[in-house]
Design brief:
Chain B: Belongs to the sigma-70 factor family. ECF subfamily. The complex is a heterodimer. Chain A is an alpha+beta fold. Chain A is built from two helices and six strands. Chain B has a two-stranded antiparallel sheet.
Chain lengths: 135, 381
């Protein structure tokens, strides 16, 4: 098994095929979308492949150390930031192909008109915590 | 085995150990160890005297730990293996534990964790699950909290307001994982209300009961939030409402108003309306005025603006809102709501979408996005 991060972007990914903002969907389309996401996570829990899923607020702040005895410097949020992460799901799958397959299914969540969003998700393998015991 | 009975015994047994000379941190550890053993042993061998059993086993665990500590330090064992005859348990011990676990030297998160363990009898694992953090993190938070209060005298009276803040925080966390924190907060507040006749303890208990009564109606089967006005009031728990109203009336009769009583009074007025239209908004505004007078809390002012909008019209609500800081959490959502009632769906839809972007939780974000979507769909047709 290996862990993969399925990353969803507010900005930074190529545009989805069915690219309509959520507040322009109908309430029924929203319900169908939320239900799809729920079912997806529940199914992965059922197969033993779900690890974690979290959503992030869009507004973030950049922070850095500014020297001994000084408060950290903050900056942002930057309206022009190219990449903005919306949330993630961590999965633990037998193969990389399986991770791609699941990301594809997640990208098929229904959006406006009840049609799949075809949203671009980023799949990133986790670095393993340990090297293999048997070299 | 009855887990809730076991958990009720936890603060009592800690109190007994402390009276016998154990310090709080060691007593708390010993009782947790005894609990673990109880869970293991009881299914096969139910005990007739659970309290006596827990006291005996916890005391033995404490002695074992103290001996190990002493021999580690090559010092004389100073603890007698048989407790000296002396004061036994006291009802005040549990009350003192509430104060100790909510001690002002603790951060709110530490006080919450320590209260749930030492007063509530939950394990670190259960508390960790409820707060979605790793068990080791929660265990560490609790042991740091115990170190922080290690110098505090157990027999010092505390300030009940600090305890109420902790219980309020626990209640507001709701439930996730296996532990229903709202129900646990009610249990602990009920127990506190038996031990102290403080009006605000009753006020908080009433507030919790009245909100808990609405829980079955607050989320739809698909998980979405249902606003108060749209809730199926047939799902409200009338037994809890009746109890909450009784507790509140007894507290108000003592004529020492506080913020929790005022909040409970508002919840009681909502509970009293058979339909949303029958809500007595004029009285609710008056209670918000009291609440603002008592606390000056900006969130109370924000909620007051909603009530004013319902009592005196959306224009009046928007005027009340205009006096507040737009950076307040949920300000934008309130603005959207009032603009819709004011007959301005375009502004309302825009503010709802904006509020969704600022939402602090997923259910709220979904709810606000849905409101924007509903208005936008109306505007298109």
């Amino acid at each position: 098994m290996a862990k993969y991060l399925l990353l969803k972007h507010y900005r930074g990914a190529p545009a989805a095929v069915n690219d309509v903002p959520m507040d322009q969907w109908t309430p029924e389309e929203l319900s169908a979308h939320v239900q799809y996401m729920r079912d997806f996570a529940a199914r992965l829990e059922g197969t033993g492949e779900f690890v974690d899923g979290q959503a992030l607020s869009p507004e973030g702040t950049f922070v850095r150390y500014d020297g001994e005895g000084r408060p950290p410097v903050t900056d942002g949020p930057f309206a022009e930031t190219k990449d903005l992460i919306a949330g993630w799901m961590v999965i633990d799958t037998e193969t990389y192909e399986r991770a791609l397959e699941l990301a594809g299914e997640l990208s098929a969540a229904p959006g406006a008109g009840g049609k799949p969003i075809h949203e671009w998700l980023e799949v990133r393998p986790f670095m393993a915590e340990h090297p293999p015991v048997i070299e | 085995m009855n887990e809730s009975l076991l958990r009720e015994l936890v603060p009592v047994v800690i109190g007994v150990l402390v009276r016998r000379g154990a310090d709080f941190a060691a007593a708390e550890d010993a009782v947790q160890d005894a609990l673990v053993e109880a869970v293991r042993v009881w299914p096969d061998d139910p005990l007739r005297d659970p309290k006596g059993w827990l006291i005996t086993v916890a005391w033995r665990k404490f002695l074992d730990a103290a001996r190990a500590e002493t021999s580690r330090r090559h010092r004389e064992l100073r603890v007698e293996s048989e407790p000296a005859p002396g004061p036994g348990e006291s009802a005040d011990d549990t009350l003192r534990l509430y104060f100790l676990c909510a001690h002002p030297s603790l951060t709110p998160a530490s006080a919450v964790a320590l209260t749930l363990r030492a007063v509530g009898g939950l394990t670190s694992r259960q508390i960790a699950q409820a707060y979605l953090v790793p068990e080791a993190t929660m265990a560490q938070r609790i042991s740091r909290a115990k170190r922080t209060v290690s110098g505090v005298r157990f027999d010092q009276p505390g300030d009940v307001a600090t305890v109420l803040r902790v219980l309020y925080l626990v209640f507001n966390e709701g439930y996730s994982g296996d532990v229903d924190l709202a129900a646990e907060a009610i249990r602990l507040t009920r127990q506190l209300a038996v031990m102290t006749k403080h009006e605000e303890v009753a006020g908080l208990l009433a507030l919790m009961l009245l909100h808990h009564a609405r829980r079955p109606a607050r989320t739809a089967p698909d998980g979405r939030l249902v606003p108060l006005a749209e809730q199926d009031r047939g799902l409200w728990n009338t037994r809890l409402i009746a109890e909450g109203v009784d507790v509140l009336q007894a507290a108000l009769a003592r004529d020492r108003l506080g913020e929790f009583q005022a909040q409970a009074a508002i919840a009681a007025l909502h509970a009293d309306a058979r339909t949303a239209e029958e809500t007595d908004w004029v009285q609710i505004v008056e209670w918000y005025d009291e609440l603002v007078r008592l606390t000056g809390n900006p969130v109370a002012r924000l909620n007051r603006a909603v009530a004013v909008g319902a009592a005196d019209g959306a224009r009046a609500g928007l005027a009340a809102l205009a006096e507040l800081d737009p950076a307040l959490p949920r300000y934008t959502a309130v603005a959207a709501y009032l603009h819709e009632r004011d007959g301005d769906p375009v502004t309302a839809a825009r503010r709802y979408a904006e509020a969704a972007r600022q939402a602090p939780s997923l259910p709220e974000r979904d709810h606000l996005t849905r409101q924007a979507a509903r208005l936008n769909a109306q505007l298109r047709s």
